[in-house]
Write a sequence for this structure.
């Protein structure tokens, strides 16, 4: 059960509600986000919801039987729309395109990519400055200095930044320079990181775990939300299966299912979802038609020379073609 | 290596080719289909392809390194188009829609379904008369008598029939009454059934195994082709993964990959691919945009009362809406 | 619910029982096996079991809520023991060892293998004469003639034969020459084959599907049982997962789970379960300790030259060592 | 290539080696652990290893083609033995048993568990004080205070402690009170945590990821090793598959494969591996026979009342029985 409290509720009124909930046999947890103030009450007993609903101090109240509560559509039916400023939004209609290299490599690369995005009217650039690498001997990214260079160049052109945060200690230094924090597939269940991102007032895009379930992704979003940050995006990026003809298996089913289960925007990552450059465009189009609120993919001026993920990265010509196709498809969807 | 022989090649000329191939150290297998006559030569040694290419009796010759040869796009670049008669085709552009119930249940049900298809200009009806059921106590289908009733009603309305064949002994009785044989996901590697379907002059649609790989599906098609039947369709219907929020995981990646690897048409089955009625349409649209040559899905006058698969079956209103959306999407694809 | 009928029950007494079952709202199916005579009743309503239990003609009666009934331990608690004659048994304690090549290749190979088995006191030889091969161009086995040669040589040395049957038409010709029919992993849900094997009076070992669930394996056994053949063995042979360091993932969990769910003997196949020669022995020992009633594995006089599966096949020295270890482990288990 | 340097190597001699490696076209990374001093050189070119091997300052040198180097058996053939003090060791023969509750719940629970372990001569107690929970509303553990209580009680009885560390900030406070740090399945690829554990002089047991590959587990161990800590244990705890009859699929294959690929000790966790209380013992025995160096499992005075994982937790009577069986099995293995 989610109890939305009235703004500026007095301590006694709140205590009365907490005690009433306890009397029913439910445990409650207070959740304050940047937007509102809730009691999340957990329990299994049946009771007459009106006995609580009529109490002073309660703005709204819903039963939610899922393990995730605050991210559930059963609680909040209207889609969440995230506003990155300057008219750039994610969710609630339209298709947010986010493109850029796997790794930020150099100032020149950033400039070339920004130029490509501006030319195609794309508003959000992706790129990694901290790279999670399974081998300790691989390239680990340009770090915070790379991010600052990128920030200055991107801001000058009105482009927003999404970049992966790998650990708690990176949140604070990254905060001024990113518009969206990305949580990678290996950190979907790094609960401490999620908790800390709950204290931040910037959007967070959570990628589904490498073999995470849809419900686990929603529970990870619930972690961040219940720690105080409502600005969340879910990202389907393919799952690990037995099939070896593609890097991952893009779970296209997850898109309509996540949209039905949650009010949060859903972004698809076809680059990781299939992992093969020539097939990224059809998978991107499929995800858009299936209902995704955004597409995030990898593009690089010379994919053959990219520091990482080159085999799944589009060159700028391929990227421009895909953007055109996505813009066509959006028209179809909106009819 | 695939050697296409000239029509009406003489026995001595053929023997000379076979001996030449053997001299290189390759084993060869003669394949006669309804369309042509081949030697499929298997081996690993390197040799100058011209030493064979110039021989009399050879119409064409290609190296194919995949384990599957005759179904490979490396051999035959042009897409295969299957003509079911009366202008109904599968492959080579356009989107073939096939709809109908999981199980054929009654004459009345057949009539209602046909009416729905005619009203929506759909030309192919699906339905099972032999049902593979994991429990021996479940409904096993109306059998050959049901098929005959269906055939008469469908022919009267110009509708083609696709239906599953489960065993060798069913091929002959079914042959006059189906336009496309379907091989189900549990029979993808029933090699005797595949061999026998190779002797038939009707199209065969092979579903991917429940956890079959893309390469296994192509090898199964190779079985039928090398036994003499070139009229083949590949069908992606979702694979078994750890995810429990959907019945199967629709492998959207498989569609562009199969199209690139093979010249055969690729059909998608969103009903089994996601297994949840309300989400069948977005998955169907996604598959069409990803490049499928056809969509096969389940529809029933009253899904709640269907003998089988009701939870993934559209009612006729939902089906009509989906057909309209697919027709819109086709226009986008063809631009 | 399973109702075991008394032997030689009269038609009127039987009809009375069937009608009583129908009156409760259950569907019933009559099952006659070589051993007994049953009514399997399917339904969900609650009723007082004594209203049926007291009727004349009923030998025994049990409720079984699983989808599989006759193979369930809820119905038959005592383990099934299969007697192959000459004191060779499977199930009910002890460890049946079955060894031999993947494919039967030649008379000489058969003789060498038999000699190896006799020297190590192994009583059952495995080997394929019909090979299911995913490529149509691979070796497909010596066929029924190879089986006859094998039979004559094996009988002369008191060795029993287990061999795979791939299709219905092979059952009759194989019947005189095998002691156990094996149903391969690609045929676990070939329901027609299962139905026909239900009419045969010889044991059938059913391998779990390549990605079959434990419940699907039990339902496949139910098919054969309900068609009349109670002489069944379940075989765990590894499942398909994302892990690529081994050919399959041996599901060691399946052994105690199958033993708890069913009264049928459970055999483990470590050769396919891991697919790497040097690691077959530890997996075989693990399966024995986990409760398997038998171990089936591949051995060949020269694994490097085997027609198939050489990379997972033990040579005779390795095989002798494994047999000794298994015999040691049996002592531990029986204490 | 791994170059083990001589102790107290002079800076000029070291520089000469580094330059020589660079001249061949390899990148090198210096690794100092508590035990020794290495250069790990990464590259693909072929060269005569003697041109480096004869240089002054080099104690040993091996080529290792795997992506993981320092944890590979190709480099270090002898098994790693970890000494926890007081004669308690892991690896190199014998079977280390680690038992205890999922969560540390109370002082009384700790005392009862310790008593059970002492009575059965078990030397290592497991238990969680920080719990990774997929729902933010679940019990998250007693924290560092619980660990201190546990430490005092355990030390008084000569029992060692293994406990999970979830984040970097917990390492320092936990350090004095644990004998082995455990990295959980959700943190196997939390590379920052791994890096920091590389700076610690206490053993670290890394659990395989929920759907991690064997190679990923080895690369995670390489992270810790290359950051300075050689005291590592690998843990197989079951993987996520499509099978729903068990919580996870215990990958018994992983045990011999990990033992062959790495010199590190391998521990098996049958509690998570199967997730069903009654079947934990057969899986534990199987893992021991397959070559595990240790078994870690969950036991609780009243599993039905455990705060977490009760359905896979043995009571003390079951635990005593399992310990006896494991001790019997060890004798078999050691013969």
């Amino acid at each position: 059960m989610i109890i939305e409290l009235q703004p500026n509720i007095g301590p006694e009124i709140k205590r009365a509600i907490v005690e009433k909930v306890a009397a029913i046999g439910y445990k409650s947890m207070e959740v304050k986000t940047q937007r509102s103030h809730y009691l999340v009450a957990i329990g299994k007993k049946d009771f007459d919801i009106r006995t609580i609903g009529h109490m002073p101090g309660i703005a709204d109240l819903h039963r939610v039987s899922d393990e995730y509560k605050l991210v559930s559509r059963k609680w909040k039916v209207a889609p969440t729309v995230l506003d990155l400023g300057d008219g750039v939004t994610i969710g609630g209609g339209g298709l947010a395109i986010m493109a850029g290299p796997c790794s930020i490599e150099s100032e020149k690369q950033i400039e070339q990519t920004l130029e490509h995005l501006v030319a195609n009217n794309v508003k959000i650039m992706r790129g990694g400055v901290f790279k999670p690498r399974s081998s300790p001997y691989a390239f680990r990214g340009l770090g915070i200095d790379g991010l600052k260079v990128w920030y200055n160049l991107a801001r000058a052109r009105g482009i927003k930044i999404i970049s992966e945060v790998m650990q708690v200690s990176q949140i604070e230094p990254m905060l001024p320079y990113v518009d969206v924090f990305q949580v990678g597939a290996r950190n979907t269940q790094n609960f401490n990181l999620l908790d800390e991102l709950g204290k931040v007032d910037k959007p967070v895009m959570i990628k589904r775990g490498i073999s995470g379930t849809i419900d686990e992704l929603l529970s990870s979003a619930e972690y961040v939300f219940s720690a105080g940050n409502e600005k969340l995006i879910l990202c389907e990026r393919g799952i690990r299966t037995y099939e070896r003809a593609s890097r991952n298996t893009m779970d296209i089913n997850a898109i309509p299912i996540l949209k039905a289960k949650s009010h949060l925007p859903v972004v698809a990552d076809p680059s990781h979802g299939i992992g093969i450059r020539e097939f990224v465009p059809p998978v991107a189009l499929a995800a858009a038609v299936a209902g995704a609120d955004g597409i995030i993919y990898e593009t690089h001026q010379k994919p053959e020379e990219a520091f990482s993920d080159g085999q799944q990265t589009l060159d700028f010509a391929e990227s421009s073609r895909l953007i055109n196709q996505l813009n066509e498809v959006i028209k179809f969807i909106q009819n």
